[in-house]
Design goal:
about 180 residues; mainly alpha; two-stranded antiparallel sheet; 8 helices; elongated
Length: about 180
Amino acid sequence: RIIGKEGRNVRAFENSTGVDVLMDETPGVLIISSFDPVRREIARVSLERLIQDGRIQPQRIEEIVESTKRDVEKLMLQAGEKLAHEVGVYNLPKELVEILGRFKYRYSYGQNMLQHTEEETRIGVALAKELGANVNVIRLGCLLHDIGKVVAEDEGTHVEKGVSLAKKFALPEEVVNCI
C-alpha cells in the first residue's frame, strides 16, 4: 500500500518529503534516505502517521506531510528557544532560533548538536570569565559557532556559512570573529 499502484504512492511521498524511499531485502522494511536530517525526520513521522491512518493515497500523503512539517517546525523552534535560554542568550531573531532548532536532528561525531552546543558554550563562558574576556560576545559566538552546519542553501564550509549568516543578521564583528 505504501508503494501504491505502479509506484504512485511512493513517488508522491518522495516528492512531498524530498527523500528517497528504498526497499530493504528484509520484508516489510523501508529505508528513508536523505542527507538532510530534518527531511528524514519529517518523512519518518509522516510515514508512521500514514500507516496508522491507513488512507495511503497521494492527496492524503501531501496532507500528512504538510501537517508533519508544521509539527516538526514547532519542535525545532522550541528546541532552539530552549538551547538559547539554557546558555543565557535572549532576544535572538526568530529565524536564527529556528535555525538553531535544526540542531535537534543533527549529529556531529556521534553527539547531538544541541548537547554539543550547550556544553561548549558553557565551557567558553567559563574560559571567558577566567580570562576577563567579554562573556556576552563569547556566549553568543559559542552558541552560533556551528550554525553553518545546518545551513543548506549556500556553498562553503560551515564556518563560512555561519559567518555569512551572522553578517546577514548584522551581529557584532566580535561575534562574527568568534564564529
